[in-house]
DNA sequence: AATGAATGAGACTTCATTCAT
DNA sequence: CATGAATGAAGTCTCATTCAT
């Protein structure tokens, strides 16, 4: 694997683990056992690394969102999709943490766009469910539910730092489903949701 | 107002606004228009300021929790209490953000204790509601609901940095209530929830 | 006892114990439980305290040296005198340590004068002994012996930080005598030297 | 010469000349005309520089002591050895001064070990001389003589900061020999001791 | 591509000293 | 006499970044 990619991978791991603010460019170089000069050969600095990771995440999320057709999707497909989406967010979780701590000026724009995308996607999901008469929530309450789903989706990233990522992703999905459940006209038939 | 208190107030405001990691001790001194030496006369460093704010928050939350009797409380009293609790958390919101970013070793113990308190309080609240037959959720799902309430309570702090604190607090409370609502046997009669 | 004197006493004790370089003016004020302002009311700063202590020491040594008549003194009187002299040096021992560490520009002049006095006094003592035909050392060797006595007198200050000052003073005197002994025509009959 | 070595050399010179307490890390950087950052690139701080110098000194002294066989050594060899030993101590003289001023907790352990080594070596030297029937001193007095030699050896470091190091070393050795001389059964035949 | 020494700005902290009360 | 808050210069140290090789 090329050095550039190794820098990205290692940075991501370290940022996720310790918070991007607590990792210096020298930390990354040391972990990779490369010289700081080499790091700067590949990236202008820590910020550019973060921006790149942010773009990767945007791309991954964007691809997922673009592929999904909320009108046509089956329930089991939706479950798979949700897991994928959460997995991506978990993979780049430090971005979401940064959003809350790093002020907008420096705070990278990409992550903010991402958030808006995810937020509006959440709202659309609920609308789609309602159009299929699967969900029964009134206008304002639906917005609130969307907000809640979105917030919970994010905050779960920060706290469920459990065992394996796969398990964490499943738990996260369950958690989100449990928020929607009470408002459904019938229980969703989601693969993996065996409650 | 004494300089010590002004330092605490200004620090809190700056920490809440920009994240504690992005504020240096000199920033605080500059904002207060005092010399760095003076800042260090009152506090050994940024960390001691944070610890003090953490203690204040713990005290405020502890006092609120100690005063409330979940068995005997009326619905309107609960509403008032919930608003107070959220107001305190909002006031010291940077502490909750720090928790997610700053590693446990340095990360102040106080805020971690606080979180556990709030988490277990959330669980107890639901238990109390169920004993009064107001709530109907099975064991595991109740835990999940408690988790959700807790997580949402925290994450709301980070994102709803809207207009006035009072409005934000009301919105936060509504948000939490909306999570519980679907599981109630009858609608709570909470003062202020007139929507 | 007046504050001024208490400052001198406490400073001396702290300087002797920790080295003057490691004691700040705030340390002294704290130890005395007075305010830094009060300290500066009595002395312009740490340096003035040191200068004053240095003067005291010079005075005490000067008085001792002035009183002694090397030609007429008896052996037992000499012993008493030597003990007194060493006691004074021990009492102000930090001055002698400072001499070695603090460069001449800042290094206080007083202590340097003191050293010269003591050095030449040592030489004179040996001359006196020789005139009485008690000592038998040739010119150059006598100078060297004087140097040795002087150096040992000082360095003993730094290392014999044993139990009580009185014991230390006796040990110091013994140590010096043992240097002279081999060159004496007959053993000195010094009170206290019962070995 | 590498920067690291230049830092060590310059630091040693400055420490010896002004006392380690009076030299700041910036002083060293300024003298070398390097940036403070560069200094810290090579050493974590002043303390690490001192520790390194201390190790060097320990090593040099240790090597000398290990090579010498007190039983078998000839007198002229001993003289050479003694000069070497004193030269090393003079070269690192600031270490011995620090010992007296800097409290044990921070005061570096290495220099303390060194002192003990030198002290016990002094005692062993005298024992060896006695076994060869060259020296005639009773038990307790021998200990005192050893102490005196040791103390004088150290304090000479502090005061004989004369012209060239070579001259100073010779004077120091002479000074030590003159302490032992009176107790010898016959004059030592030391190369260079032409008295 | 890669190295690693070097830079310099700025953060953190200490302390001698002043000054209004 | 005494207080203690306040100052500011200076010391210690970190880190993002550059650059010659």
From TrEMBL, chains A, B, C, D:
Annotated source species: Ferrimonas sediminicola
Keywords tagged on the record: DNA-binding
GO MF term list: DNA-binding transcription factor activity; transcription cis-regulatory region binding
Signal peptide: none
InterPro entries recorded: Homeodomain-like_sf (IPR009057), HTH-type_TetR-like_transc_reg (IPR050109), HTH_TetR (IPR001647), TetR (IPR025722)
Database matches in PANTHER family: HTH-TYPE TRANSCRIPTIONAL REGULATOR PKSA (PTHR30055:SF226), HTH-TYPE TRANSCRIPTIONAL REGULATOR RUTR (PTHR30055)
Pfam families: TetR (PF13972), TetR_N (PF00440)
Domain of life: Bacteria
Occurrences of domain HTH tetR-type (ranges): 1-61
UniProt key word GTP-binding: no
Keyword presence, DNA-binding: yes
DNA-binding region: 24-43
Protein name per the record: TetR/AcrR family transcriptional regulator
């Amino acid at each position: 694997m090329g050095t550039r990619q190794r820098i990205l991978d290692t940075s991501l791991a370290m940022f996720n683990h310790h918070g991007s603010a607590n990792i210096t460019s020298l930390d990354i170089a040391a972990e990779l056992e490369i010289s700081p000069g080499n790091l700067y050969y590949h990236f202008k600095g820590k910020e550019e690394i973060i921006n790149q990771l942010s773009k990767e995440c945007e791309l991954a999320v964007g691809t997922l969102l673009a592929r999904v057709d909320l009108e046509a999707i089956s329930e089991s497909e939706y479950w798979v999709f949700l897991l994928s989406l959460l997995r991506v967010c978990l993979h780049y979780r430090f971005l979401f943490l940064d959003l809350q701590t790093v002020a907008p000026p420096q705070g990278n724009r990409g992550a903010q766009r991402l958030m808006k995308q995810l937020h509006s996607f959440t709202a659309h999901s609920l609308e789609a469910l309602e159009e299929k008469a699967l969900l029964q929530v009134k206008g304002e309450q639906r917005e609130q539910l969307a907000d809640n789903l979105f917030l919970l989706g994010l905050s779960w990233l920060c706290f469920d730092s459990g065992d394996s990522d796969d398990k964490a992703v499943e738990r996260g999905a369950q958690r989100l489903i449990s928020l929607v459940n009470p408002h459904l006209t019938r229980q969703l038939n989601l693969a993996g949701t065996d409650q």
